[in-house]
Amino acid sequence: MENETTKQPSEARGQTGFSRRGFVGGMALTALGLASTASVTLAGCSNETTPDGKLYAEGTYTSKQKTPYATAEITCTFDEKSLTDATYQVLRSSEKDYFPVYASAIDDYCAAVVENGKTSEVDAVTGATFCSLAIKEGIDACMFQALGMADAVAVQELNPQDEEFDAFEGDCAEVFSPIKLGAMELPNRIIKSAGSSPWADSNNDKITVSTELYGAMAQNGVSLIVLAGGVLANTGISPDSLDKIKGSVDEAIGLVSPLVEAVHDAGSKIGFQMCFGGAAPTVPDSVINDTPIEELDQFIENVGISAERSKAAGFDCIEIKGASADALNGFLTRRVNKREDEYGPQSIENRTRLFCRMISKIKEVNGEDFPVGALINGIEENDASLGDDARFITNEEAKEIAKALVAAGADWIQVRVGAKAQEMNIWAPDVQHIAPEADGLTGFGTKFNYKSHFGGLVDGSHSGFASFLPLVAAIKEAVDVPVGCAACMDLRMGPDYLNEALKQGQIDLVFMNRPLNCDPELVKKMQEGRREDVRPCMKCMHCHDSIGTNKAVPSSCRMNASSFNSLTDVMPEGMTPAPAETKRNIMVIGAGPAGMEAARVAAERGHSVTIFDSETKLGGLLHFARGVKGSHERFDDYIAYISAQLEKNGVNVELGKEVDASFVKEQAPDAVVVAVGGARESKFSGDNVFSPEDAFSPAALGERVVVLGASVQAIDFAAFLLSQGKSVAIVNPNGADAVDKGQSGWFKTYMLPYLQAEGVKIWSQAVIESVDEAGVTITTDSGLTQTIPCDSVVEFYDMVPNLSLADELETAGIETYAVGDCAEPHNIQKAVLSGNLCARAL
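The structure corresponding to this sequence follows.
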């Protein structure tokens, strides 16, 4: 349990404390989960008094404690000799929170502890283990304060998290205030960053997709769209592909006209990101060190041609990328630049010379009033070998670099961090927070210390949200042009927080990518105060799977089925589903991700929809995932969003209802969507063998746990067990490539090194011979048999299809569709996509 204690005056007893405009029941949760610090117990505490007869320092003390589903503040009052009162207040909650369910019993538990004088020997509340543990550790923490022992027992937590960043109680006036970038005026501070290229349509054309996607963003309030270079293939605009065209130059430039016109017609601006050495995130050092000056001169001429063509095409600005670990950044960092000529590392002037020449050339060709931005690393860190960062860019160097670029004509600066090895550390710092109570992951099994690494200029206290704000503020001290950053700057997630940063002058520009791809209408919805209607980005990184898996898995979006599918053969009609030609009565059975998405889209198209579920809450396995994975992926936001959409679209929700074939026949729907989820298999029995759901309790399992299975659910559960202080081993009956199957590629890149560094052994291609009280006996891939000693075993095999109801309905002649895990178990993204496509076809 995370322990945060303070002394304060007594407060009135209470059970809830919510204030979140635009959310269902205040469920915008953040950094929850379970701390890995040891539980504080006072079982051995004697009642010896001090020489003056006092045992406690009289007063009232508080301690904040977290469970997987809630944050509670425990308040204890002491007189000189005893604990006189213990109460609690739930500060943040989610739908699976047991505090309100067991409120009376938890009150009785508090009273029993007061009567006993300490938490030992008082039984926990049956059925509310997490809640009881939170109360126990909160009272113990308060007692240590009253004993004057708080400092002695305090555990210094690495990278503590602050969950109070997601409020939406203002109007975001600063976010929606105008700003000028050189001569270009923007109506608000939201810019679509060049974080990724869109997909290609069924004709392998990215312009049509870009026109639909970025046109929608512009229509919904994004002030400036900055394209990644990949969008401009075959247009002859990028300086490294001037001659890669079909037809004449004018014809090539004309290819981009529909996109430019769509953005301009919506009242927004459009630009593109220019690079040296191509758009690859990394290049060989030889590109920096061995390129002759003559070729650099020719490149500058190409920049001029590129600028001229871009202006002719209607572009309003250009941003030059000299960040991450790309080629232009290689000139800026002494770590890479070994040249001995005027482009060498001897001075800031030399290091920025190529960058400055690019800015100057654009201004020379297009006019001094043509806006040019610069993207740089505000500081660098060696993520592969923490602390070994000699010759990496420091913040003081970055300030001087920024000054040089502004002097050359840069009209704004975008800032990020630099890292040697893992690309996500550069622009997606939220990936560093994917494991519960393990914030700061580097991708190498180690952890950043945000107080010292990156010069202490990365704020890692908000699960990756707005991490670069201190870095932006530092660069702003050095220049007089607007400065901003991307990297999980999600306006939906922390609107008041970002608005206050703008108001305080910490930042001028908010660059966004993933949240806008998830919901292109985000900006307008937020301006209208409709956060509940914004499709929430869950930071899952599936949108970068193509890179994260080395193209083994195509990119996708967990929440937005049209992303990476619109205008392709999968979804040729485009982002918006066509209205239904005939209104039909649709029954959806199962209210997990697939079923809820099917119900939402079918109702949006005009069908009459009723969704049934045997549980009493919407969400299916999302609640279990929320408890296991913590709040980082914003499961509560997902459920709040989808609940609001089902209500607004008129979906009739019937919960706590078991549905069988007889009931379906009685209701006589026109079509049935079966989304009852996959089935779990059990292959062993015994007192030490648990299902995943039964294993989800700190008291259920012993200290040594073996997890049978290794797909995404099993791996996430292993990380949860680590947060509980368990020793974990994983038995994978499949090949090593099946480990963490269903997880995004970048999550896997960070999660597996973390597990391995924590001592988790993964036995791949292992045959499970037996399970007994001694442990799990396997035959390893080497052919040897051995027993893994353990106290508990959790069966977490891949789920299997669950088609019995769908088959029975089809046999009865009822139009039936099976979606999600019941048809093909995989992950949330696949479930949402299958539900969406099914509803489009109804």
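The CA atoms of residues 54 and 80 lie 5 Å apart.
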